[in-house]
Amino acid sequence: MSEIVNVHEAKSSLSRLLARVEQGEHITIARAGRPVADLVPHTRVDLVMGLAAGQIVYERGSFDDPLPDVAALFEGR
User: Which of the residues in the chain have pLDDT under 50?
Assistant: First the structure.
């Protein structure tokens, strides 16, 4: 369970609270005894864009051309 601190305490000791969060603790900030926010360790997620770069190829002009068997169905063949 996380520790609950009031807003005044959080404002006056934010650096100390952040150091505790860096160590893995979860801290809940409350106003008048009601939880308002949680301080939790940040989880970094590296997004890699373009993983399939160069692996997907199509010939220009043919991407939107109808497939022969589908065209034949539409033409009644």
Answer: none
